[in-house]
Every structure is written in structure tokens, then in C-alpha cells.
Amino acid sequence: MRRCYPVVATSASLVVWGIIFFGLNGGTTVSAAGAPQQPRSAFNQGPARAPEDPAAVVHGKALFAINCQACHGADLRGGDMGGPNLLRSEAALTDLHGEQIIPIIQGARMAQGMPNIGLNNEDAGAVAAYIRSVIGSIGSQGRPPGEEQVLDIIVGDASRGQAYFAKHCASCHSVSSDLKGLATKYPDARQLQARWLAGGSAHAQPSSLPTVEITLPSGEKVAGGLVRIDDFLVTVKLSDGSERTIARRGAIPHVVVHDPLQAHRDMLPHYVDSDIHDVTAYLVTLK
């Protein structure tokens, strides 16, 4: 089986981000509370709209909660009584001034199971304004409507993190030397957490890159930066910048790899969530 050896330290991620974010378009909209929202996402396929009347949005939200929420849900994505997701409704997405939504509220789709709610034009228009305001606040693909909430990942115990650091990390790292001011260097706790899990900066320093020593059957020794190693080949970057690839057959030639980050790699399978949370909570105190 082939083994590929990593040669550049990259930032560790607890979550693999594979979502491709679409560009934003459209103008500013108004939320249910009347607050300006971010521009519409391309994920929202409705036409660009002028900002909604804040008073109409607030009034429509109250009417929606009384008359619509049980079927369509508090977040408009479908409720307990089986109503459809309004965020994917063609009528809701294309409505500009109530011309699509108001007739439905007033019974235009009774044959399809949507009852006549019994609202007059003004009240039905307010509900339509509220629905449009929520649709207008849809963010990038996969994110629900509304303002994005930044999660606080500092949920661990700093004292436990300090004890863990003393037991597992202090033999190689010191809070008074290489880690001094770490939290100032990485003020974003998520970035700091990713860096310590990876073993350092996203831009690997020469001192953190693995090296290799190869002893050929002839006795010749070849040493340099490790480019690649597997069961069949080892490639080394020589001091003059050139690369040399040497075939491997079992234990011949003799290959010794020196990886400054190996201790970090070895620990990755053993971390549990509480370890990561606690160590991060401790490291953010190193201002």
C-alpha cells in the first residue's frame, strides 16, 4: 500500500468546508425587526426588491404567527401541520407587491388545500411583506435566513487546558518563549485552534519541515528536505535545490525521517472534544 508523507504543515480544520458560496446580489432588505440585512444571496432566486416598510413587516409578522405559523413554521420552512416551505415557494420568491401572495391568502388555492385565511388586502399585504423580508435575508447557500451568528468556540475549561498542556505539550513548547503572545498573534479563536492542532503557522518555516537521511547499500549518504516517501520511492530535496528520487525495496536503503511535527501528528487520533476545547480555552489566555 502506498503511503504519501505530508511535507508542508497546513492548518487543521475541525469542520471540512466544502460549500461553494455564491456571490451576493440585490439591495438591502429589512428584517422582521426592521433592521437592515445583508444583500441577497444568489441562492435567493427572487427578483430584487425595494426595502420593505418596517411597520408593515412587524404587523405582518404578528399576523403570520397567528394565522400561518402552524402550517408553515416559525422560520417559514414548513410547520407541524404540513404546510410547504415558503422559502422555496415560487409564488413567494417572485412576489413583489403582494400580487402573488395575497390571492393565495384569500383563497386562490383552496382546491390545492390552502384555506382562505380571511384577511383583508391590507393585512394580507402585510403578511406578504413579512414573507418577502425573510426571503430577502437569506444568506449564502445552506445558511438560514437572518443575520449570521458567530459561534463562540471558547467553551472549555482553561485550568484543565493548562494541566493538559503541562502534561503533553510543555516538553516541547513554552508559554514564555515560542508560545508567548500566541493569542495576540491569532486573535480569532477558531484560527488559533486550527493552528495549534496543525502544529504551527499555515506558512511552514524551514525548521518545521521534515528532513530525511538515506544510507545507500554502497555507504553513500543522501540527506535533505523530504519531498515524498512511500513504500517504493523516496524523494529528497538536496542543498543545491535539485531533487533526487531513490527506489526502495523493503528496508533497503536505510531511511530515517526527522519530522519536527510528528508529535502533533501522533496526537491527532487521540484528542477528544474536551481536550481540544480545554487547550483552546487555555491558549487564548496567552496574550
Q: Could you list some keywords that capture this structure?
A:
287 residues; alpha+beta; Cytochrome Bc1 Complex, Chain D, domain 2; 10 helices; 30% helix
Architecture per CATH nomenclature, i.e. the level-2 architecture of the domain at 20-141: Orthogonal Bundle
Helix content: 25-40%
Q: How many DSSP E strands?
A: 5
Share in β-strands: 5-15%
Cα-to-Cα separation, first versus last residue: 45 Å
Main β sheet profile: 5 strands, antiparallel
CATH level-1 class of the domain at 20-141: Mainly Alpha
Element order: H for helix, E for strand: HHHHHHHHEEEEEHH
Give a quick summary of the entry.
The protein has 287 residues and is α+β, with helices and mostly antiparallel strands. The protein is built from 10 helices and 5 strands.
